[in-house]
């Protein structure tokens, strides 16, 4: 039952954000009483926390799979971006805003993941790309890794890219290619053109 509550809650959070989804909504969607939910979760924030933990663990697994399968840093970066696009395609852009403003534990989990895992992963990609002659030698790895992560988050900032004017996934795609092309050497650019239209690496769950 706990896993079922978590899954249904995640679907609702992804569609509507966190703030607008109530415990009544979750109970109604499952067809159980709120009392049953409270037997497994103290409150809505506890559900959010478990949902975020689960999704971040899944995301780490997906990224590790791509790391193993990608032939080089350029393919890796493109495949990671496509994986994120696929995962976020059905996510309401308000979700990150709601996490930041209303769910401090969930937001802290996301921030810890960003700084302890994603930035390190991007830095590793950049260092390998430089070593292989695909990325420019003069890159500041720490600075560029942070810039890339903030751009991904920025794509979902409704105050910068209002959802009624911009599709967050389209914004993210534009930002990724703008960022990546700025890294490339001539050798890297030739390789980049070979990967642009390739499908995403299949991730088996």
**Which bin fits the share of residues in helices?**
over 70%
CATH topology name, in short, is: Tetracycline Repressor, domain 2
Sequence of secondary-structure elements:
HHHHHHHHHH
Number of domains: 1
Structure explained in plain terms:
The protein has a single domain (48-195), classed as Orthogonal Bundle (Tetracycline Repressor, domain 2), CATH 1.10.357.10. The protein has 10 helices and no strands. Helix content is 72%, strand content 0%. The two termini are 21 Å apart. With 205 residues, the chain is mostly helical. It is elongated.
Could you give a short description of this structure?
With 205 residues, this protein is mainly alpha-helical. The chain contains ten helices and no strands. It has a single domain, classed as Orthogonal Bundle (Tetracycline Repressor, domain 2).
Can you give keywords for this protein?
single chain, 205 residues, mainly alpha, Tetracycline Repressor, domain 2, 10 helices, 72% helix, disordered C terminus
